């Protein structure tokens, strides 16, 4: 039988999996719907409106796949991507001229997948990224 620590770790793992799922599903749906208020973020790094309109649905599909994957089985490589992508998309806000608080407000978007990655264990070998 599992001990109390293992049971608590599983509960924390599931809470984090649900948090990552919700974040990436919500953002994925917004991207699929080509949320117009996100276009200036692309413009701030030199991506044109027409290109942003093409990229947003693709990003949306990827975000939804990340959401579903993490809910079904968190894979280290996908969690690494989730941390990187969520951090980058939070950072784009002050880069585009919004207050730093818009970045800080989104800390949970990248901290939840980072905490989940910590909980399941950082990859020690290249092949661990696929587990």
Q: What's this model, at a glance?
A:
The protein has 131 residues and is an all-alpha fold. 75% of the residues lie in helices and 0% in strands.
Structure description:
The chain has 131 residues and is an all-alpha fold. It has one domain (4-130). Helix content is 75%, strand content 0%. The protein has helices spanning 4-32, 39-43, 49-72, 76-95, 100-105, 107-120. The two termini are 25 Å apart. The mean pLDDT is 96.
Strand content: under 5%
The parts where pLDDT drops under 50 for at least 5 residues are none
Shape: elongated
Number of strands: 0
Largest β sheet strand count, sense and barrel closure: none
Q: Helix share of residues? A: over 70%
Mean pLDDT: 96
Keywords, separated by commas or semicolons:
single chain, 131 residues, mainly alpha
Task: Give the secondary structure arrangement, pairings included.
Layout: H1 4-32, H2 39-43, H3 49-72, H4 76-95, H5 100-105, H6 107-120
